[in-house]
C-alpha cells in the first residue's frame, strides 16, 4: 500500500519535472520578423500613464494600420525601474527597438554607444524641428535622438482652492501654509530616495528658480550660495509640513486630482494625466513664482537601440511620427507638451485648455534636467545630490554640509 | 487569586492581536480597492469595504492582463519549487551522508551565495541567459529563481536528513536497496515536513521576485504579476484602486498555497523537538 503511494508520488514528481523541463526549453522568445512583417517593440514610461497611455497605444495602432511591413507594439516596462531596466537590457545587446528616454538616461546611453546614430537613417532637413530642444539631440555631429516630447515645468494649482495664484516665493509659501489643514495640503513634491529621478526633477526648479545651477559647464557648482538658497527654500516647505510627507508621486498626484493638494510644480504632460484621473477638477497653470524665470523641462527623445536588428524599420516609425498630421495627434495626446516639430495648437484645443500658452511661453527659459558639461554623468551625480539633499530633509545633516559633501563626492566621481 | 479563565482570555487576545497585525495589510488592500475616489484621501479613513465599488475587480480581470500575469506567476513559482526541491534533495543528501574532500567548503559556498544581492547578479546573468537564449522565457526565470533558492533548500534538507537515524538506511541496504532507492523511498517520505517548509520558501521567493523578471522578460504577455502590478504605476498618475485590487488577487494564491502546506510546515518546525 505504502509502496503504491510512493510510486504514485514518484510518477507525479517525474511528471512535474518533465513539465518544468518542457517549460525551460519551450518558452523561448519569438523572433523579430514574421511572414515578411518586421515586428518592433517601443518602450516608453508614458505608456503606463492612466490618461496618456491608452491614447498613445491607439496612436501606435494608427501606425500599424498605415502600412503592412512594420508593426510596432508597446513594451511594458514599469516606470519605477524604467531607465535601469532598459539600460541593463541595452548594455547586454538586447532591449526594445525604440525607446523614449528621459534626458539623464539618454545621455548615459548615448555616451556608452548604446544608441544608433540617426544621421543616415532619417533626413531631418525635411522637418521643421523645434531648435531649442533639438540642440540637445546631437552629440559631436552625430544625431542620437528625435524629440518625442518637450515639456516645460509650471505651477499647477487648484483654482477652487486658490482663486489668485501666488506671484513670488513668499506668497507661494504662505499659500501652501494657509491651505494645509485636515486632509488637505498646500503643496506636494517628491522627497524620498526611492524616487531619486523625481526628486531631481523637483529640486531642479528650486535650484534654477533661485539663480543657481549644477555646474558652470566646466566644473560642478553643487554647493554654490545660489543653490543653497534654492534648496533651503525647498527644505523650508518640507519643514513647514505643507506637503504630505512620505507620500510618493503616485499618491500625491491622485490627491491633487481629488482636490486634496493645492499646488504642484509639474510639466505639461500632467494636464492629460490629471484629466484622466478626474475630468471635473478645476485647475489652472501659472509660471513658477520663484525669483528667476528659469525652470526645468522634460526633454524625452525617441531613439533607436544600437542592438536592434531592424534599425531601418525603426526609422520608418520615427519618420511616420514626424509627419505633420501625426505630430498634431501626438501633441494633443501629450497635453501641454510640445513635440519634435513646430506644431500649432488648434483653436479647439486652446479653447479647451487656455493655459497651454503658459507652457509655450516658457520654452526659451526652460532647461533639460542634466548637468551641463557632465551630461553622461548626470545619473551618477543625481544619485549623490539626491542622497545628500534627502539626508538634509530628514535632519541627519544640515543642508550646507550636505551640499558640501555632495560637491566633494561628485567632483571625485567626475575626476 | 486570579480566575483560571483570565489566562486563556489573555492568550486569545494576544493571538487575535498578532492575527490582526498579520491580516490587516491584506484587509486594507481590499478596503482601498473598494473605496470611491472622494473617500480615498478623506480625513477619516474608510474601515469597511464599499461593495458597490466591486466593479474594480471585475474590470481588472475583464482586460485579461491580470489573469495572464497570475498564470505566469503560478508557472514560475511552481516550476521554481519543483526544480529547487528536485535538485535540493540529492544535494542535501550528499552533504549529509557522504564524506568527500571540500565538503565543508561546499556548505560555506552555498551559504555565501545567499549573501549576494540579486541586483548585483542581473547584468552578468543577463549576458549569460542571452547566450543560451533563455531571455524572455518563463523557463529562464524558473532557472534563475531556482539558482537563488537552491542553496537554502539544500541546507534545510541537509539538516532534516542529518536528523534521520542511519539505521533505517542500513536496514534498507541490507534488504538490497540501492542508494537512490534509499533516498526516494526511505528518506524523502520521512523529511516531508521539511520538504513542505522548503516548498513554501521556494514558492514565495519566485512568486515575489521582481528584479530578474522585469529585466529578463520583454513580452508583456510573459510578465509575472510582480512586474504587471508595477506597470500600473505611471509617470504622472496611478489608478490606486486597480493596483490594490490586482495586488489583493496577487496575494490570495500565495496565501492559499501556504494554507495548503501549513500543517506540514508546522510539523517540520517541531520535528525532532521531542526526540528521546
Overview of the molecule:
Chain B: Belongs to the binding-protein-dependent transport system permease family. Chain B: Its main location: membrane. Chain B: One of its GO terms (cellular component) is plasma membrane. Chain A is α/β, with parallel strands linked by helices and 415 residues long. Chain A folds into two domains: 34-150 and 298-352, D-Maltodextrin-Binding Protein, domain 2; 153-295 and 370-414, D-Maltodextrin-Binding Protein, domain 2, CATH 3.40.190. Helices cover 45% and strands 15% of the residues of chain A. Chain A contains 16 helices and twelve strands. Chain A has helices at 2-26, 52-66, 82-91, 103-111, 131-134, 169-179, 196-209, 225-239, 249-257, 270-277, 311-322, 324-334, 347-352, 356-361, 378-393, 399-414; strands spanning 33-34, 37-44, 70-75, 98-100, 138-139, 142-143, 146-158, 185-188, 261-267, 283-286, 295-304, 366-368. In chain A, strands 1, 2, 3, 4, 7, 8, 9, 10, 11 and 12 form a ten-stranded mixed sheet that branches. In chain A, strands 5-6 form a two-stranded antiparallel sheet. In chain A, β2, α2 (52-66) and β3 form a beta-alpha-beta unit. In chain A, α2 packs antiparallel against α12 (324-334), α7 crosses α8 and α15 (378-393) packs antiparallel against α16 (399-414). Chain A is globular. Chain A starts with a helix and ends with a helix. Mean pLDDT of chain A is 90; it is low at 1-31. Mean pLDDT of chain B is 88; it is low at 272-276. Helices cover 75% and strands 0% of the residues of chain B. Chain B contains 13 helices and no strands. Chain B has helices at residues 4-33, 37-40, 55-62, 65-97, 103-113, 118-131, 138-162, 166-174, 179-190, 192-208, 211-216, 225-231, 240-270. With 276 residues, chain B is mostly helical. Chain B has a single domain (64-269), classed as MetI-like (MetI-like fold). In chain B, α7 packs antiparallel against α10 (192-208), α10 packs antiparallel against α13 and α12 runs antiparallel to α13 (240-270). Chain B is globular.
